[in-house]
Model the fold of this input.
Amino acid sequence: MADTPKPPDMQQLQVQMDDEVANGQYCNLALVNHTDTEFVLDFLYVQPQQPLARVRSRIITNPRHLKRLLLALQENVQRYEARFGPIVLNDDEGRRH
Done:
């Protein structure tokens, strides 16, 4: 009976991460593009008063996964604001195109 596979929702996912990835990358700008089948998220670091922004990471994913990511981000922002207070955006920090 111990060899009976667990249903997918009960299986534990093991995640491996090397040191470079674990250190992370600081990004202060994200660009989003899409086709009918994919979303491309480019995360960049822009230095103040510099004309060149360097892409630190690119994530390519499908629309369904991106929607799940969006919901997870919304939920975590709500938790953050419940604990630490609202995240206030200045007028010039709204949507950028």
